[in-house]
Every structure is written in structure tokens, then in C-alpha cells.
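Thread: quick sanity check before group meeting

JM: Hey all, I'm pulling together slides for Thursday and realized we never actually wrote out the predicted structure for the chain we discussed last week. Dropping the sequence here so it's in one place. If anyone has concerns about the input, flag it before I start.
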Amino acid sequence: MKYDLTVIGSGPGGYVCAIRAAQLGMNVAIIEKYSTLGGTCLNVGCIPSKALLDSSEHYHNATHTFKEHGIQTGSLKVDMKQMINRKNEVITKITGGVAFLMKKNKITVHHGHGSFVDKNTIEVTKEDGSSENIQTEKVVIATGSKPIAPESFNYDKKRVITSTEALNITDVPKKMIVIGAGVIGLELGSVYARLGTEVEVIEFQDKILGGMDKDASKELQRSLKKLGFKFHLKHMVTNVKATKTGVTVEYQKRDTEDTLSTKADYCLIAIGRKPYTDNLGLENVGIEKDDRGRINVNSHLETNIPGIYAIGDVIKGAMLAHKAEDEGIFVAEYMNGEQPHIDYNLIPGVVYTWPEVSSVGKTEDELKAEGIAYKSGKFPFKALGRSKASMDEDGMCKVLSHKDTDEILGVHIVGARAADLIMEAVCLMEFRASAEDMARICHPHPTYTEALKEAALASTADRALHI
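JM (edit): ok, ran it. Output follows.
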């Protein structure tokens, strides 16, 4: 078996890369360790977590806002097993869709663990222990990442869990401790808080969503507190002990020796993810990694070994499915002699809590650190007619623009449908538009998009109309 390109890993970066390469006329193979395609995102990440977020949001609205909308309900209860079943059905459909796309594009799928024998030979070890070698002209490493779980946290996959196990709990816990106030911890914490679980979050930094805009962080924290979240910021976990029925977490305030403890049904470890390069045989071909285990690549996403590329979570940058997809397309087109481009500053980030959080471009802290003069305009969702009508009044929109040129430098949104709203900002920033441009565009009324218009107006001589 000889291929023009072999992709190791079938997550969003890998399978999209394979499709684009096949569209460009290459004979492509893809290697996937597990029985279903789609990687972490489709099987135990983005898609299943959003399915549970949507289900839990329906329940929360039924128990908290339906009455005010004039909708009378009887007694409600959570059928957690059905909620998990629906999530699994979503996974089955979408991973089946990826398998269909592989057939449609004549991409050969090899199930098993891929590892380098040499730069042009990949060994695929199957689940039954047998193996086969395939020959390939070029290779793309797209093996993704896995949760970080320090030994002191005693990760047992039963009471001390990561996002993978949190997607399959079949009874609503009374209490859950979340270690880490990043995207994964807050999203999955939201799922269970909406269903009635008491959620405590322990975070080492002094704010939630450490890499995001400080105003967005504060706004979301206020909303999550109303949902019932309890936050222990500037605290570090020192030990986690599990029993058959629960878990005890010991932690202490930063820069002190005072130890505190709390008990719960589960402890969710959500302190980040690390590149998954286990047993890939990188040493057999001399592929270089950095001190954090990420594969080093050049501006063309090629490793130090010509013809071997790496994309997605295994290289430097945000661990986002859409970033991996764009890199997959980039690599396929570069191999074909084209001149693709990715602007990493304009890759949006999203947190699928409710309200949602989205961001693109620079934060205020980054602009200050870089010495860039800027203007800032903010507008609260509670001043929107659409938000009043839907009872989604939490949140704000912030537009940052250059003080002299008015070019939009960053947009940060907390509010209903922020995940979708951010694309207006991404599109405008791709064309280096000004805040004035955003303000002059006619936005439909009543919509959540008007928050962007008003924030842009606020950043240009404080011209917001509705505050």
C-alpha cells in the first residue's frame, strides 16, 4: 500500500486535511486508533459536551423561566440516562457522517495505532495485536491532545474524573468539585449546575478564563454565581482522595500554608490538555519537540523532517478544533504548491456556557503590554430589546479599536448567542475594518447583533445610542 499522503489521527484537523488533500487529487490514507472517526472533538469533546449543554439548558429554562413566560408545567425531573443516550446518538450520527465523507472522497481508512518506522513507512498496529506497514510520500501528524491529570490528583476514572468520564455520568451528582476555571471546567460545570448539582470551582489564577478579556471574565463569573457556582480563586489543590462513594479535595490559598478541604460525589480535573504523541515513533525519524511536548514546526507547519507535517493540538497554539481544521487545509494546499495563509490573531475563541463567551483579536491587557494606544467601547445586553424579550439580559459586548486609525483590534462578547455573533467581528477584522465601519453597518432590530453596533458606537467618541 503506497499513498501520496497519510494522516495520523481523524479529529477535525486530520479528517479535514485528508478531505482537502483528496480534493486536490492526492491518494490519501487516514489512520485512527479508535473504532470511530472524529477524534476527541466528535467523540468525547466538543460535540457531546454541546449536546449535554443544550439538554441541561432546556431543563434549566423549564424549571426557572417557563412560568414567567406564561408556560405552566407539571412536576419535572431529569432522566439522566436518556440525556446521555441522546448525546450518544448525536455522536453516532456525526461520526458516521465523517465515515461517509471518507468513502465519498475515496480516502482509505486504517483502524489502529500508527507509528513511524521511518519517514516513509508507517506501522499500523490493530486492536487484535496484528500490524501492517504502509508506504507514504508525506505524513501529517494530527493526533490531538489528552487531559492533564497530575499523579497527586489520583485520577481513577470513577470518582476523580476528566471531561471524558464527565460526559457519561448517569445520575445527577449532589456535588461536584471542578479543578480549573478554564473552558472545559466551566462548560461541564454548567451542565451539572443546571441540573441541580452544587458546583465548587478551585482555580490557581485570580480570575476565571485566564486567557480571556478581564471584563468578559468578570461578567461570566457573575452569571455563573447566580447559577449556583462557588469559586475559590487564587487557591491550589494539594491532594485528592477518592473512595467508592465520593471524593475529598484538599487545597490551600496561594502563598499560605493553611489547608482547607471539601467533599463531593465527583472531582472533575479540568486544568488543561497536553499533546498526544505517545508511541508515535517520533524518535525513529528524529522529529523534534519543545519543552512542553509539542512538535516543533516551521511557518509551513512542517517538522524538522522534510515531508512530515503536524497540525492541531500537537503543535503550539490554541487547542481549538477550528484552528486544527484551518491548519489541515493549509497543509494540504501547501503540499499542492499553493500559498495558503492563516492569521492566528483572528481565530475566535468560544465558551459555551450560558451566557456564552466569545473573543477575537487582542485583549486590553495584551494591548497595554504591547504599548498600543486604543479606544474601548462597551454595551450591556440588558439594554437590548431582544434581550428583554428573551430574558437573556446577562452579558456585554466590548469593542477595542486603535486610538488613531480606528481599526478594530479586539472584540469580546458575553451574552446570548455570543458564539455566533463573534463572526461579524472576525469578518470585519479580516478586512481590517474600523469601529466606525461596524457602527455604520445596518443591524436588524431587534437582535443581539445590535450590541456590536452599540459597542462600536461607544468606542467612537462615546456615541452609543441606547445607554
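AS: nice. The first strand starts at residue 2 and ends at 8. The CA atoms of residues 302 and 412 lie 32 Å apart.
JM: adding both to the slides.
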